Amino acid sequence: MNAPNHEKILPPDGELARPYWDGAREGELRLQHCADCDQFQFYPRIICSHCGGDKLSWRAVSGRGRVASFTVVRRGISPAYPAPYVVALVDLEEGPRMMSNIRVEDVGNVSVGAALTVRFEPWGADHVLPVFELSES
Amino acid sequence: MRRARWWCVLANPGRALRGKVAIAGVADTAVGVLPGRTPMELCVEAALGAIEDAGLTRADVDGLLTCNAMAQPLMYHAEAMAEYLQIFPRYCLSVGAGGGTTFSIIHHAASAIVTGMADVIVVAMGDSLRSSLTREQATQVQASTGHPQFEQPYGATVPAYYALIAQAHMAEYGTTAEQLAGIAVACRQHAALNPTAQMRDPITVDDVLSSRLIADPLHLLDCSLVSDGGSAIVLCSAERAADLAHDPVYFLGAGEGHSHEHISAARSLTTSAAREAGQRAFAMAGLGPDDMDFAQLYDCFTPTVLVELEDLGFCAKGEGGAFVESGALAPGGSLPVNTHGGLLSHCHPGNPGSMFALTEAVWQLRHAAGDRQVAAARHGLVHAQGGIMSSHTALVLSREAV
């Protein structure tokens, strides 16, 4: 069930993705890597979505990416999500795309193609969520 | 590039269905704000209307296809409706493909008639999102869209998911907010001609752009309505339809395309599986985009229509914005789109939304659409998608069986 609407939505626990969430707690963005085709994938699966292989292991990645697309949510989903906030699709340097938030003072500074760096944000009582900020320089 | 004949070269265009079935009856309930009406009542009223319109009785119906109602979820929706109507079908199923449910159902229903699973199928849907959905249910709908682990925690709303598509299209092709707004304006122009539409007051591009931002670049008027309403059709063999009350509207082509569920896992943000859906539907029909006299395109948000116009072959990729600006979509344009007003201006009661595009297509092809009739309409394309540009079905309908 979803959290009551005054709380942040928490990712449901699951065995497969645990290294991802443990990584976030330890300040690392970790993705599944396929030994057969040498590609990363996201979200985690029991097979490689590129080649169908199953030699998957978790590797820490750079945490760098670029904005594939974004929007500024002007009406938040609940009081736990004070608007405005940026929801983005992030193309990671290692290949995969993921959804995230971009934490930025002025939402007008976000653009498609902008360089991003991951950061880790406490989320609820004992979760940590990877979010992004605009890279310096 | 509109003349490219890619739709003629598919290996297996599924001709077994072409021209074999027809829509014989249609009915909509009133739409808009209908307090006190349950989704089941709307569904039943529409079904009875469509059966009567076809000149049939309940006893003739041996197939029933429905979709569940968000405001009144039932474990066995189609069975509950059959029970309510006291009909005893041999083919009875409730289908859930989000906004794509309507045409996905019609595709399956046509196959069911050709393969003998049923002779007379009623497709009926109704919901009352506007009047009956509780705040908790509405929040649930918003919050439960998206991947539970990797999307939902970031707080995207449904408009936000579609805004990601709009922003990507703008960045890649230079599409403007004004061009997106033009889609809402055209739908409202059609709705102004339709006495049943929920929103009929004319709007301008400036009105859209000065309505409040919901999720950049989408403004309030880029977003579809929230409505109550029900709609139904009767589908049977073309042969049987020829003996019924109205000129049949023939099913000439159907095609589907399914590319992803979650927008973060989409193959592309700017090219959707509407492309395959359209190619397959046109291949079955033996017709192409230029043969269509109108198109009813899924318009939950304005960018949805923009991408569909391109992917269904009505204009080249990236030229959707210019196509809208040309006035093509408006009444009297080269491709009138959503001649009833669409989800943006006619009504949007959730998953049943595209049923109203279907009944409208039938009235257009019967030449019974009143002030909004597209002159001499012969063929029309209807399209819907569910998810976030995830699951697409396109149909080619015609007043001619050939």
Structural features, described:
- The complex is a heterodimer of chains A (137) and B (402).
- Chain A has one domain.
- In chain A, 6% of the residues lie in helices and 39% in strands.
- Chain A contains one helix and eight strands, in the order αββββββββ.
- Chain A has one helix at 18-25; strands at residues 30-34, 40-41, 56-60, 64-73, 85-92, 97-102, 115-123, 127-134.
- Chain B has 402 residues and is of the alpha/beta class.
- Chain B has a domain at 16-133 and 227-241: Thiolase/Chalcone synthase (Peroxisomal Thiolase, Chain A, domain 1, 3-Layer(aba) Sandwich).
- Helix content of chain B is 33%, strand content 17%.
- Chain B is built from 13 helices and eleven strands.
- Chain B has helices spanning 39-54, 77-85, 101-114, 135-143, 158-173, 177-192, 205-210, 238-241, 274-285, 302-311, 320-325, 342-345, 355-365, and strands at 21-28, 63-66, 91-94, 120-128, 213-215, 218-219, 228-237, 249-258, 294-296, 379-386, 391-398.
- In chain B, α5 (158-173) crosses α10, α6 crosses α10 (302-311) and α9 (274-285) packs across α10.
- The longest helix of chain B has 16 residues, at 39-54.
- Chain B is globular, with a radius of gyration of 19 Å.
- At the A-B interface, β4, β5 and β6 of A face α4, α5 and β5 of B.
